[in-house]
Specification:
The complex is a heterodimer of chains A (177) and B (300). Chain A contains four helices and seven strands. Chain A is an alpha+beta fold. Chain A has a six-stranded antiparallel beta barrel with strand order 2-3-4-7-6-5. In chain A, a hairpin with a 2-residue loop joins strand 6 and strand 7. The chains are: A alpha+beta (177), B mainly alpha (300). Chains A and B meet through helix 1 of A and helix 11 and helix 15 of B.
Chain lengths: 177, 300
């Protein structure tokens, strides 16, 4: 009998483990290139969400940004300069995810995200997460912009960003899956 | 069953060759191949009619007879007529074969300032043979995989010749990712050679599965996780595209070596030896200076 490959192993091979996180510029460039229609979201977030359906390879990471589970496929619901919402069938317990997104014709982004919440959404799980950016080449981390958001929500977002900045992704993980 | 026409339409979207520089003169398929492709699409057309079309082109006739009489077919008697060859090979494999012969002829007839045609077609044959072996492992169409491996970059000699300065800039960058050339083209032209070649192949009425092999050949290892294309000739052609070529020396072989670790049947060294042996047997008249097995050994 032929010995076959597992799709999850293939997904893991597709991730570039030599530098797992992304810079602010790379995230901005990718999000700007997302071709979204009219946004149905009418909220006061500092970063507007773009509805988008992009295939994503996700790998659960522990607090030290080491792989702590098998790679899986998921789909974005929306994306913004600050974070992303994903749909998947896996239950997410890991604090971080390494995401590799590829849009049509070779535009790709690999980024670490911090899981903010995971909840069931029909037969899927919806994961909301914020980008964790690489410290290098990230001028905004040295000189942060003032948030447009105000009040309790704005303060909450600011404290979230501070937590995210504390958790700066290393350029090399200790091991792959 | 894959709806190849739908996959092709989805991949090409609204792309048309009109976005390419108007000075670019695109090649044409030999008339006999075009006519054969048109007529053979209709299953009711008798084989004798198709044979008469092939016989109008002496070069095609010779190549087809050479193909059917090759030792790999193991025939006891020598085939002497085109209609016999068609009956033995079947419509689809003959379509694939004539397509590859016709396309290669159309491109070889043109000069390229940046690509040495002999080295280029040597690598193309290497990729085609590799794609065929991978297709066997995936239990998918070996003829489509072979044609996909051979023709995935068929427009590159022409593009690099006509847009020489721009491609020279890419060569100077020394990029090592297998998909870097396509990324570079997207950034400079907003199209890439895979799209342009697939669109032209579509205009030539080449089979849709072959157009898809060309269109998605830079999909990389990820294609194996695709629910539809992961077990198709497209996946075999995409893995073959990871073999570097003279224009772009990338790290594709390293990625193929990683695949070996998770796919027990994918034995890169054995595959490379099979490909080298078959390439030698094909005896295209040009020495293969870069045997695949040497490249695989260099990884270790």
């Amino acid at each position: 009998m032929a010995e076959d490959f597992r799709v999850k192993d293939i997904l893991s091979l597709c991730v570039d483990w030599s530098s797992i996180s992304s810079t602010r510029a790379a995230v901005d460039q990718f999000v700007d290139a997302v071709d979204a229609g009219h946004s149905p979201f009418d909220d006061r977030r500092s970063a507007n969400r773009k509805p988008a359906m992009i295939d994503v390879i996700a790998v659960p990471l522990d607090a030290e940004f080491k792989a702590c589970g098998e790679a899986f496929l998921s789909l974005t619901r929306n994306i913004s300069h600050g974070g992303i919402s994903l749909l998947c069938t896996e239950e997410i317990k890991a604090p971080y995810l390494l995401l590799r997104m590829e849009m049509a014709r070779y535009r790709c982004l690999q980024a670490v995200v911090r899981v903010i919440r995971s909840r069931s959404f029909y037969q899927f799980n919806e994961v909301s997460a914020a980008f964790v950016l690489s410290a290098e080449h990230n001028p905004s981390s040295a000189n942060p912009k003032k948030s447009k958001a105000s009040g309790r929500r704005g303060a909450k977002a600011e404290s979230g960003r501070r937590r995210a900045k504390k958790a700066v992704a290393p350029t090399k993980p200790a091991r792959a899956i | 069953m894959i709806d190849w026409a739908a996959m092709r339409a989805e991949g090409l979207s609204n792309f048309s060759l009109s976005v390419m520089p108007p000075t670019l003169s695109l090649p044409a398929l030999p008339h006999a191949v075009t006519k054969f492709l048109e007529r053979s699409a209709d299953e009711s057309v008798p084989l004798d009619d198709l044979a008469r079309i092939v016989e109008t082109d002496a070069g095609l006739t010779v190549e087809l007879l050479k193909r059917v009489n090759s030792s790999s077919n193991g025939l006891a008697v020598r085939v002497k007529s085109v209609s016999q060859a068609l009956a033995l090979l079947g419509r689809r494999p003959t379509r694939m074969f004539l397509t590859t012969i016709g396309t290669e002829g159309a491109i070889r007839a043109r000069k390229s300032k940046l690509i040495n045609q002999n080295s280029f077609w040597n690598v193309c044959l290497q990729r085609a043979l590799f794609a065929r072996e991978v297709a066997r492992l995936l239990s998918t169409d070996v003829d489509a995989a072979f044609a996909g491996g051979l023709l995935q970059d068929f427009l590159l000699p022409l593009l690099t010749n006509e847009l020489f300065d721009i491609y020279l800039e890419f060569v100077g960058q020394g990029q090592t990712a297998p998909e870097a050339l396509a990324q570079f083209e997207q950034s400079r032209f907003e199209w890439d050679h895979a799209m342009a070649s697939a669109c032209l192949a579509c205009q030539w009425n080449l089979p849709d599965e072959l157009v898809c092999c060309i269109l998605y050949h830079h999909a990389g290892l990820r294609i194996l996780s695709h629910p539809k294309l992961g077990r198709s000739p497209v996946a075999a052609a995409a893995l073959a595209a990871m073999i570097p070529d003279p224009l772009h020396a990338h790290r594709g072989m390293e990625q193929l070596a990683k695949l070996e670790a998770i796919w027990p049947d994918f034995k890169l060294e054995n595959l490379a030896e099979t490909v080298d042996r078959q390439q030698e047997e094909a005896a295209v008249g040009v020495r293969n200076d870069f045997p695949l097995s040497r490249r695989v050994k260099a990884l270790k």
